[in-house]
Write a structure and sequence with these properties.
- With 148 residues, the chain is an alpha+beta fold.
- The chain contains three helices and nine strands, in the order ββαβαββαββββ.
- Helix content is 37%, strand content 32%.
- Strands 4-9-8-6 form a four-stranded mixed beta sheet.
- A hairpin with a 2-residue loop joins β8 and β9.
- The longest helix has 34 residues.
- The termini are far apart.
- The model has no long low-confidence stretch (mean pLDDT 92).
């Protein structure tokens, strides 16, 4: 019996995957629990069309992310911080400040997608951060910590 999974099922498959199962397992567990639907010809056609449309949308989103990444590589970002007498920062710079500086530069990137490379940033200087623009596109950017 062939079924189309409506959600992830452990040891069976992922959502929107066509799988072959024993008739009793499909009829008595997967379908009544709402984990799957019977894969008739019309369901298979709709599934194929849905996958085609998703692939087209994903390709478009990836192209936009690639364009954003190319702009981001050439951008210079400055993060302002309060600095003491000997060049040390009060506290440290985190991904939140880098995200705010990127937003001020015109790039809307979530702070969770920014990872600072190296140790804690406690002095003025140039540092690196890894930015995840898309699940397949990661890049390393340079940013400067300057006195505010």
């Amino acid at each position: 019996m062939e079924v189309l999974l409506k959600q992830n099922v452990d040891n069976l498959g992922e959502k929107d995957e066509l799988v072959t199962v024993k008739p009793g397992y499909g009829r008595n567990y997967l379908i009544p629990q709402g984990y799957a639907i019977l894969a008739t010809e019309s369901v298979k056609k709709m599934h194929a069309e849905t996958l085609r449309q998703r692939a087209h949308k994903a390709e478009k989103i990836k192209a936009e992310a690639q364009a954003l990444a190319s702009k981001l590589e050439s951008a210079t970002v400055e993060v302002g911080a309060k600095v003491g007498e000997n060049g040390k920062i009060f506290g440290s710079v985190s991904n939140v400040q880098v995200a705010e500086a990127l937003e001020a530069a015109g790039f809307n990137i979530e702070r969770k997608k920014i990872k600072l490379l190296g140790d804690a940033i406690k002095t003025v200087g140039t540092y690196k951060a890894e930015v995840v623009v898309h699940k397949d596109i990661k890049l390393t950017i340079d940013f400067k910590v300057v006195e505010a």
